[in-house]
């Protein structure tokens, strides 16, 4: 089967907690520019900032709020409430603000959302900023984001080059696969073939089980395709680890050398000691070099390129032989 990176040209729309984009909308009239470290790459996405608390009409500055009696999901069922520091019940206001933000994100057709963990509204896994307390996660708006099955990115991870690289490549794959039209088994299997090496890196046992499941499929219904799509999307939401990413980089570099017969300056083996910033630079170098040479970079199967920056000739399809595919699976001894 022919392999090449999937190139998308449309910018992905990403929702973001407004305080993380520098807007001074927190209760204390402050905010953080969490996108600053992305540099020019920030321009590769369309950003839609929202703030459930200001959309609630609570104003800036305001008394801080907290969940009482349960988590954010329980607020929607009436089992918990939201109070401010003075004990005033602001549940209905915050619910209306959350609904208004969700409507905005739907109009913007966002694929992902960058959330501020520790917030009683936008927090997903924490609703308290106190070091030893998680609060009552998820927050009221965080529970809505989970229900919408968006690709959720913690704002703090935008500060780490390698974590952002991991989120970005999985987001691109998530967006492409979620919007891909699939009518039959062949469509599904072709899509899986593009994503399987990334999925194997994230969860190898699950990915191999999924591969066998797809290989054994007969005629498949739309409901089964939808169910499998949902399962794959769920895996793409899961972060990888530095160790897994580093080994995946080396496997893909080995594939590049076998394909092109060339080396790339600055790419090191997994046992070479360096910091995560250096690893992130190696990943970007390998990603760019593979794209320019028309070589499939399996660990980052979907890439975004502005049409204005595209070369005149698209990279050619590369057909992988069994040895190359085994290298990407990590089943052959790798060159030192």
From TrEMBL:
It comes from the Bacteria. Residues 311-336 are annotated as: Disordered. It holds the Pfam family 2-thiour_desulf. Residues 316-325 have a biased composition (Acidic residues). Residues 326-336 have a biased composition (Basic and acidic residues). InterPro entries: 2-thiour_desulf. PANTHER family: HYPOTHETICAL CYTOSOLIC PROTEIN, INNER MEMBRANE PROTEIN. This is DUF523 domain-containing protein. It comes from Proteiniclasticum aestuarii.
